[in-house]
Design brief:
The protein is α+β, with helices and mostly antiparallel strands. Among the domains are: 71 residues, MutS, DNA mismatch repair protein, domain I (3-Layer(aba) Sandwich); 84 residues, MutS, DNA mismatch repair protein, domain I (3-Layer(aba) Sandwich). 32% of the residues lie in helices and 29% in strands. The strands form four sheets. Strands 7-8-9-11-12-23-22-20-19-18 form a ten-stranded mixed β-sheet, with helices on both faces. It has a six-stranded mixed β-sheet with strand order 3-4-2-1-5-6. Strand 11 and strand 12 form a beta hairpin.
C-alpha cells in the first residue's frame, strides 16, 4: 500500500481505512482518506505494511526516519515508546499528551482510553509545571497518567503519577502547661519532664535526650510554638523567641527550613506524623498513626519538599523512587506554594 508524506502527516487512501484503521486502529479517518502520524507511519513501514512516497520516490526506513526526526521534536524517543507499547499488544493513538492507550481487550470506538502517556528523555530536566499540566489534563478526564522515560540506551522506564490527598488518624495530645524550651545551636530542648514525656509518647515528637528531657527538630519546634505548646527561650539571654524570630534563626541554620516547615505543619494538620527522612535521602518519612512507641508501624511514604518552579533531574528522581520502592514505600513530592501544599505520588509501574 502506497501512502504519501506531506509536511507532518502521512496520507493514505480509502483502502487504508479498511486495512489499517478498522483492523489495527492506526491513524484517523478524515472522509475518504486516512491520516497517519509520522510515528504511526514509521511503525507501519517497519512492519512492511505500507510504502511511503515523497516527490514520486519511495523512502526506505532510514530515509523516512531521518526526515521524520527533522520534522518532529523528540521523534525517535516517541517512536521507541510507541513501538514498545504496540508490541505489547496495546492499541495506541496520539493524544493531548503524547499518546493515549486503551485497556487490554478494548479499542477506539469500543472503550474509552485508559491512560495518557508523556514521553521524556533522561537527559533533559523536567519542570514541575510541565508535569502538573500533563497530570491535570489526565485527571480532568479521569485517565491514568504515565511518564515514559527513555534512557541513553533506549530502555524505557514507566512511572505512574498521581495527585494524592494524604490523611492520618493521629489525635494531638498536648501537656496541660506551656513548656519551657531552649534553642541551642541547632535544636531545641524541652526541660520539663511531664511535657517531654507527653509529647514524645503521645505525639511522637522529637527524641528523648534522657529520661527527663526531650530534644526537638527545628520544624517540630516551630509547629509547637505556633500551637502554644512550648515557649522557646534564647540560650544566652533567656528571652522568649517569638515565631517570627525563631523562623529567621532556623532559616539561617537550615536554608530549606521555610519549605519544610510549611509541609510539616500541613502534614500534622492532616493527622499524620512526619519524622526525618534523612536516612532515605528525603525530608520526611510519614506515619498515618503511632499508637505505641514499642510497636512502631511501618511508614508507607517518603516525602520530599519542592517548590512550584522545581525541575526534576530525571536520574535523581529515578534514584529516589527506586530507593523508596526498595524499602516498600511510596515516593511523594510535596509542592509548597504560598497558598497551599499539594502532594504528588510518583511510582514505577509495569503494563
Amino acid at each position: 500500500m502506497i501512502v504519501k508524506l506531506t509536511e507532518d502527516i502521512v496520507v493514505a487512501d480509502k483502502q487504508a481505512i479498511n486495512e489499517l484503521y478498522k483492523v489495527g486502529y492506526y491513524g484517523r479517518p478524515k472522509g475518504d482518506i486516512l491520516e497517519l502520524t509520522l510515528i504511526e507511519a514509521a511503525f507501519l513501514l517497519y512492519r512492511n505494511r505500507i510504502d511511503i512516497e515523497l516527490d514520486g520516490e519511495n523512502l526506505d526506513f532510514a530515509g523516512f526516519f531521518k526526515i521524520a526526526s527533522m520534522r518532529q521534536q523528540h521523534f525517535e524517543l516517541k517512536y521507541i515508546v510507541y513501538k514498545d507499547l504496540r508490541e505489547r499488544g496495546l492499541y495506541v493513538q496520539p493524544g493531548v499528551t503524547d499518546f493515549r492507550i486503551y485497556p487490554r481487550g478494548g479499542h477506539p470506538g469500543k472503550t474509552a482510553a485508559k491512560s495518557f502517556v508523556c514521553v521524556r528523555t533522561e537527559r533533559i530536566p523536567m519542570s514541575l509545571r510541565d508535569l502538573m499540566k500533563s497530570l491535570n489534563t489526565a485527571s480532568n478526564v479521569r485517565k491514568q497518567m504515565i511518564l515514559a522515560i527513555v534512557d541513553e540506551e533506549s530502555d524505557i522506564t514507566l512511572y505512574e503519577v498521581n495527585a494524592i490527598d494524604p490523611k492520618g488518624e493521629m489525635d494531638e495530645i498536648y501537656p496541660d502547661i506551656t513548656a519551657k524550651a531552649t534553642l541551642l545551636e541547632e535544636r531545641v530542648i524541652i526541660w520539663d519532664r511531664e511535657a517531654s514525656s507527653t509529647l514524645f509518647k503521645h505525639g511522637f515528637y522529637g527524641k528523648m535526650l534522657d529520661e527527663n528531657r526531650l530534644q526537638l527538630s527545628l520544624v517540630e519546634s516551630a509547629y509547637l510554638i505556633e500551637n502554644g505548646v512550648i515557649n522557646v527561650h534564647d540560650r544566652k539571654s533567656d528571652d522568649i523567641i517569638d515565631i517570627k524570630e525563631f523562623s529567621k534563626r532556623a532559616s539561617t541554620i537550615e536554608p530549606e527550613f521555610p519549605g519544610k516547615c510549611k509541609v510539616y505543619k500541613d502534614l500534622r494538620n492532616r493527622g499524620l506524623v512526619p519524622k526525618t527522612g534523612f536516612k532515605f535521602g528525603t525530608h520526611f518519612r510519614l506515619y498515618s498513626q503511632v499508637k505505641s512507641l514499642d510497636r512502631m508501624p511501618h511508614s508507607e511514604n517518603l516525602v520530599h519538599t519542592i517548590s512550584p518552579d522545581h525541575k526534576f533531574a530525571l536520574p535523581v528522581m529515578s534514584r529516589a523512587i527506586r530507593l523508596a520502592n526498595s524499602v516498600r514505600k511510596h515516593m511523594v513530592f510535596a509542592v509548597q506554594s504560598e497558598k497551599k501544599v499539594e502532594y504528588i505520588d510518583i511510582g514505577r509501574i509495569k503494563i
